[in-house]
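Bug #77: duplicate submission created two jobs. Keeping one. Sequence:
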Amino acid sequence: HQLIGEILQRGIDEDVFRADLEVQTTAALIMQAVLGAMRLRSLGVELNGVPITGEHIYDFCVRGLLPPPGA
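Kept job's structure:
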């Protein structure tokens, strides 16, 4: 959680991530999303019929961090 928070803060400081992120809340949400997706993957439970990959998890998490295009 702390590492994710540090990554988020660095992204904000470098104007890569949205400035309005609540760092600790977002870090907790990312951590829980990743752990849940990993658990689904390891248990073989595929709700959508397609295996969940690291790329899917990354895309999902990063999409909410980036500022809107043109911002």
